[in-house]
Every structure is written in C-alpha cells, then in structure tokens.
Design a protein that fits this description.
By secondary structure, the chain is an alpha/beta fold. It has three domains: 43 residues, no CATH class; 251 residues, UDP-N-acetylmuramoyl-L-alanine:D-glutamate ligase, CATH 3.40.1190; 213 residues, Mur ligase, C-terminal domain (Protein-Tyrosine Phosphatase, Chain A). 45% of the residues lie in helices and 12% in strands. The protein contains 21 helices and 15 strands. The strands form two sheets. An eight-stranded mixed beta sheet has the order 4-3-2-5-1-6-7-8, sandwiched between helices. The protein has a seven-stranded mixed beta sheet with strand order 9-10-15-11-12-14-13, sandwiched between helices. Helix 1 runs antiparallel to helix 2 and helix 15 crosses helix 16. It is globular and about 65 Å long. Its EC number is 6.3.2.17. It catalyses: (6S)-5,6,7,8-tetrahydrofolyl-(gamma-L-Glu)(n) + L-glutamate + ATP = (6S)-5,6,7,8-tetrahydrofolyl-(gamma-L-Glu)(n+1) + ADP + phosphate + H(+). Keywords: ATP-binding, Cytoplasm, Ligase, Magnesium, Membrane, Metal-binding, Mitochondrion, Mitochondrion inner membrane, Nucleotide-binding, One-carbon metabolism.
Length: 543
C-alpha cells in the first residue's frame, strides 16, 4: 500500500507538469494508466505477502513428521482463524456448498458442476487449488477469477487480522447462490472441512498420492477422502476399486449418509443422444457423470432419487460442452507447434494422459505431410514417483525429452504468483537431472558410470550409434519453450519475454525441430509446470 501511494504521488506530480493545453482525453487516459499501474503493484505486493506464508523446506518436513499426532487440531485452529476474520461456520452453512474430493478428476468435476449450475442462471462461487498462472484463479465468481481490486482488498483485511500467527488461508463471503468447493489434500483434515452442512458431496477417482500425509495404502487414502461425509448429506462417487469402495461404504454407514455410485455416461446418452464434453479424454466421462448427479441433486434440494441415469436437460448438455478447465487434457495449436497439456501427477492420471495423448497425436499426424517431431516437457514435485510416470510415457516414442523445474524465468521479477518457497532451487534442479537419468535408463541412453552431469541448458550426447530420444535439462520453463519452438511459435515470440540463448551444442541439436512439418509437445507431470507454460502460451490467463 505504501509503494502504491508513493507511485501515485510521483505520477500525479508528473501530470501537473503537463501543458495546460493537454486534452481531457489525454488526461483521462493518464488517470486510467495510473489506476492500472497502482492495481498491478498492489496485487504483486499482496501476493508477495502471501508467499511469506509458504512453509520452508525444513519446517515442511517437520509438519509431515508431526502430522500424524493430532491432525484434528488443524481444524480446531481453522475455526479459530475463521472467527478472528469476523466470520463463523454458521455463515459458511448458508453458501449452499457442493464439496468435492478425490485423487484425480476432482477439479474437472467441480468445473463441470459449476458451469452447469451457472448456465441455469445461478450466481456461482468456485474455490479450487492449485492455481495455474495467478493466485486469483483459486477463487472464482460466476466463472471468473475475482478481480485484482477485490483480491487485494480482502487479502489485506484477512492478512492483517491473522498476521500474528501467519496462517496460510484466506476466505471471504460474497453473495452467491451456491459455492463449489474443491478439497485441497485428503478430506478429513483439509482446511475446507470446516464446512458442516454441504448440500451434497462428491468423490472422484481414488489413487495413491500425498502418502506422507494421507497414508501409504489405498484404504487409508479412501478413509481420509471420506472425511468430508456429513450425517444425512448425500454422497456420489464414480466407480472405484473394491478395496477403497468398501472403505467408503463403511464410512457412510458409520457417519449416517447415503452413498451412491454414478452410472456410466453411456446410460445418459441412451436417453439424450451423444454428449459432447468441453474437456477431452476418457476420464472426463466419469467426471461428467459425477457432475450431472451433483448438479441434479443440488437443483432438487430436498428430493433425493439416488444415482439413476436420467435424460440431461438442454442446459446440462450445454454446460458439459461449454466447460473449460485449462491445463487438463488441453490442446493449443500455435502454427506448426501443437501443445498438449495435462497436469497428470499420479500414475493413475498419467495412464489416462498417455491414452488421451496417443489418440490425439494419431489423429494429428495422420493429417500431416512431412516429418513430425514429438517432444516431452516433464517435471514432478513432492514425493511422487517420477520414474514410474516416465515409464508410462516411454511408449509415446518421443524424439526429445526435456526437463526443467517449475520456474517460469531465471529472472523472477513480477512473478510472485508462481514462486515456491517450499523447496529449494537446488533440489528442483537436482530432481530434473534425476528425471533425465531415469529417462535415459528407460530409452537405453545411460551415461557412462561415474560421469558428471552438467547443469543448465546442457544436453546428453548419445553414447549409442542409434537412440530414440535426446534428453536435455533447462534452468527454467521459458528457456525450455524457446528451445523447443525455435522461433516458430508466434504467440511465444511476441510474449515480450527476454530471449534466453542456448549453448551452441544445444542449438545444433534443434535442427529437426526447425525442419519438421509439425512439432507436437506434451507438457505433463505437474500442474505447476503446466501453469508456467500457459503463462506464455495463453497470455489471457495472465492478464
């Protein structure tokens, strides 16, 4: 706020020096520019303050060790933080909440659900995580991220009230007809589980993820996810494996809530005809079925009819088709370079990603005349099994495998939304090198025993006469994208970002990329990586 005030004073002082004959239009434009600049600076200051709440590496490890002792204390603390902001759980009960958890597909399910109910004319709220490009994406009103002004206003109000304990949470109440809330991690002890009276709950596909927090078995994870169940509140789930389904059923009986399994989307289509989905991929059909049941139950309110297939209304059909959820099975075509983006971060979601990419690439290449180059851009975070995911990707037959950390630029100025203090840069780069070695092991391009790996824009020269994939590590997302596109992506070339030159040996390796009729790039492994890529490929997300 102080920075904005100083900036405003300087610009107003400059305005006073303009000639008296300056036109009103010019003065008006200057005032608009002043306001936009102040808002931009204020937002950056707010996000920088928010980033101070990110836990550093050592403290994060300590939290993981202590998490199993009294995790329920987190929810007690959360209620206390809520009271300190002037809100109560009673106020949350009036938001008409749809609460959704799961391992993969929960965000897409929420996106389908929110779009359907918005198309019915309801004013919707939508909370999700993580964000792709800007923090404001996590909170949406009527499908749009909250404005910079509103984010800044509410952030500073809450931050000031909670600054004594540095809590990484912020919440505000807006006048909405309903709120779709996506669980962050797990369910039972997630901060969103202070919700007491949701209208309906949903569970998307379950799998293994966040094992240090949720448990090492699918049964333990299912127990955590079922923690959002509330007495008498209907719950819908997609088809699950037998073991996690048994846990969900037992928890539903224990808590006293009805649990229904959603039918396949084909059963709806038998009555309504083929349904077109705005999100690609076979997995989205399960998410769409879950969203239809959640939407119908919310619309009916007090009437519960189970999870039978029904004929979707024209509004529901339109909502499914119009749903957008960037970074999930998304395709962007920029001239000769086509990007396939999917933030798959578990082995289950990676299997679905590979299936989707294989189908898409087959159609794309069948219509091309001339050589097609396939490129993998990959990274992972946390405790995820990178080697297992890379093994699933190997059959895609990439010509290049490129690895980089979730750092958008080596220069982090004006990039507060995508800074991560929970892991060191050194660890991020080391992980990229580990991923490179894993891929080389899979594709038969291992380096010599004991050889040292050079960091930062350095390729691994193949040691065998014939290899299928060249592998490279770059220091940031921008340098990786610039090398992959070789100036052939007009959107990336006009993004206004600085050009990061590569070493001559790396430039020489790019000849196939320059000569190919089509370059197909799969970006996957981490939603944060996908978000960093979208910052450059879809400038509207950063505006």
């Amino acid at each position: 706020q102080i920075v904005c005030q100083q900036l405003a004073r300087c610009m107003l002082k400059k305005l006073r020096t303009w000639p008296l004959h300056s036109t009103p239009v010019l003065m008006s434009r200057a005032k608009v520019a002043l306001k936009q600049t102040c808002v931009r600076v204020c937002v950056q200051e707010a996000v920088c303050a928010l980033n101070t709440l990110q836990t550093n590496v050592s403290v994060l490890d300590q939290v993981r060790r202590e998490q199993s002792e009294l995790p329920e204390l987190q929810l007690q603390a959360m209620r206390g933080f809520l009271r300190r902001t002037g809100l109560t759980v009673d106020k949350l009960d009036h938001l008409n909440i749809i609460h959704v958890t799961g391992t993969k597909g929960k965000g897409s399910t929420c996106a389908f659900t929110e779009r359907i109910l918005r198309d019915y004319g309801f004013r919707t709220g939508f909370y999700s995580s993580p964000h792709l490009v800007q923090v404001r994406e996590r909170i949406r009103i009527n499908g749009q991220p909250i404005s910079k002004e509103l984010f800044t206003k509410y952030f500073w109000e809450v931050f000031t009230q909670l600054d004594a304990t540095k809590v990484q949470y912020y919440l505000f109440i807006q006048q909405v007809d309903l709120a779709v809330i996506e669980v962050g991690i797990g369910g039972a002890y997630d901060c969103t589980n202070i919700i007491r009276k949701p209208w309906v709950c949903g569970i998307s596909s379950l799998g293994i993820d966040h094992t240090s927090i949720l448990g090492n078995t699918i049964e333990e994870i299912a127990w955590q996810k079922a923690g959002i169940f509330k007495p008498g509140v209907p719950v819908f789930t997609v088809k699950q494996l037998d073991r996690p389904m048994t846990v969900l059923q037992d928890r539903a009986k224990e808590i006293g809530c009805p649990l229904w399994v959603c039918p396949d989307l084909e059963q709806y289509e038998s009555a309504a005809g083929p349904l077109s989905l705005g999100l690609a991929g076979q997995q989205q059909r399960y998410n769409a079925s879950l969203a239809l049941q959640l939407s119908k139950t919310w619309l009916q309110r007090y009437r519960q009819s189970g999870a039978k297939a029904f004929k979707p209304s024209p509004i529901m059909v339109k909502g499914l088709e119009a749903t957008e959820w960037p970074g999930r099975t998304q395709t962007l075509r920029h001239g000769p370079v086509t990007y396939y983006l999917d933030g798959a971060h578990t082995t289950g979601s990676m299997q679905a990603c590979v299936h989707w990419f294989s189908q898409e690439i087959q159609q794309e290449e069948s219509s091309n005349r001339g050589p097609v180059i396939r490129v993998l851009l990959f990274n992972t975070t946390g405790e995820r099994d990178s080697a297992a995911m890379l093994k699933l990707l190997e059959p895609c037959q990439f010509d290049f495998a490129v690895f980089c950390p979730n750092i958008t630029e080596t220069i982090t100025e004006n990039n507060a939304d995508q800074q991560n203090f929970s892991v060191s840069v050194e660890n991020m780069l080391t992980r990229c090198l580990d991923n490179q070695i894993s891929w080389q092991s899979l594709s038969g391009t291992e380096t010599k025993q004991g050889s040292e790996s050079e960091l930062l824009i350095k390729d691994r020269l193949p040691l065998l006469a014939k290899t299928r994939t060249h592998t490279m590590v770059f220091p940031c997302i921008l340098s990786a994208l610039q090398w992959i596109s070789q100036g052939r992506d007009a959107v990336l070339a006009t993004a206004g970002s600085p050009y990061l030159p590569a070493q001559p040996s790396v430039t020489a390796k790019a000849e196939p990329l320059r000569e190919a009729a089509q370059v197909s790039v799969l970006v996957t492994g981490s939603l944060h990586l996908v978000g960093g890529v979208l910052k450059y490929l879809d400038p509207s997300l950063a505006s």
